[in-house]
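Recap from last week: sequence in, structure out.
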Amino acid sequence: MTFMHLTFYATFMLSSLGLAFHRTHLISALLCLESMMLSMYIALSMWPVYTQTASLTLMPILTLAFSACEAATGLAILVASARTHGSDHLHNLNLLQC
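Predicted structure tokens:
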């Protein structure tokens, strides 16, 4: 395993651990999701360089598009929950109260 692979795996795992353990604010959960998507984007964009192929050059662009859609949806949910509940604390959000 090269240093670059270790860096991508560590970044993804630290982001997923941050998502699992720091669930107090919605913005921190969104930032962890965005860092996971960023590490996946960088890994997918560096993968054709390591394998010296050009067949999967569309995958990073699709990942970036899905990441932008995820960020827009997450920010819309953040704004909506801040307007209705008054804060972005995740313990205030309950599906049974809707």
